[in-house]
Design goal:
- Helix content is 43%, strand content 7%.
- The chain is mainly α and 217 residues long.
- The chain has a domain of 127 residues.
- The protein has a three-stranded mixed beta sheet.
- Helix 7 links the parallel strand 2 and strand 3.
- Helix 1 packs across helix 3 and helix 1 runs antiparallel to helix 5.
- The protein is globular.
- The C terminus is likely disordered.
């Protein structure tokens, strides 16, 4: 896929001189606020911040982030009825395809809801100031400081493993297992971003290519 960078957020129109009354935002101004707001929402996403900082999308990762914002805007231009769940799937798909990253902490839910709420406000469906949601996102981005990231990044080695075909029949009658103790012995993993590994074909002794299954989320 050819990635063409889009510019980041543009400045808002200045207030009228002399403290005059602001006119209702024009459709062009509302679209500009939507595009800029998407960019702010994505820039505040720790998962995308990690992927961009570490160049998981290649040397043009920053350009891909800008393109990503435009792709979300284009999604709503072509499919205005896109709901939150569909937007979540879109965000995850782009992260996997363009940044070789699988997000497993469900942070895409908050990002999608933020963009959804922004669009709802700009359309006047929330009542009050249509630009309030945009200004809130803009303020969060400008005051973000050093972004704190509470995630681990792990290499996805399990993705290359063949899935087990054998069914489990349960414990034997003579086995006495303390399941509570067993569960407590397993450490709980913190949310992680999984860096996708490319699956290499496996060739057996007879020269046939073996199909390698992928573990699903």
């Amino acid at each position: 896929m050819s990635i063409q960078s889009r510019p980041g957020p543009t400045a808002a129109p200045p207030a009228p001189p002399g403290g005059g009354v602001l006119l209702p935002p024009t459709p062009e101004r509302l679209q500009q606020a939507f595009d800029n707001g998407i960019w702010y929402a994505l820039a505040l996403w720790p998962a995308l911040h990690i992927a961009t900082t570490n160049s998981w999308g290649g040397p043009d990762s920053a350009d891909k982030r800008d393109w990503f914002a435009g792709a979300v805007s284009d999604l709503y231009a072509s499919r205005p009825d896109t709901d939150v769940e569909e937007l979540e799937e879109f965000l995850l798909q782009v992260m996997a395809d363009e940044f070789e990253c699988v997000v497993e902490d469900e942070s895409e839910v908050e990002v999608a809801r933020g963009i959804w709420g922004l669009r709802k406000g700009l359309r006047g469906e929330s009542g009050g100031d249509r630009l309030a949601g945009f200004r809130e996102l803009e303020g969060r981005w400008r005051n973000r400081g050093a972004m704190k990231v509470d995630f681990r990044v792990i290499q996805n080695e399990a993705e290359d493993e063949e899935e087990e075909e054998e069914e489990w029949d349960g414990f034997g009658e003579d086995m006495d297992v303390d399941m509570t103790a067993a569960e407590e012995a397993v450490p709980r993993l913190v949310p992680a971003l999984v860096k996708k590994e490319r699956v290499e074909p496996v060739v057996d002794d007879d020269g046939f290519t073996k199909v390698v299954g992928k573990k699903k989320r």
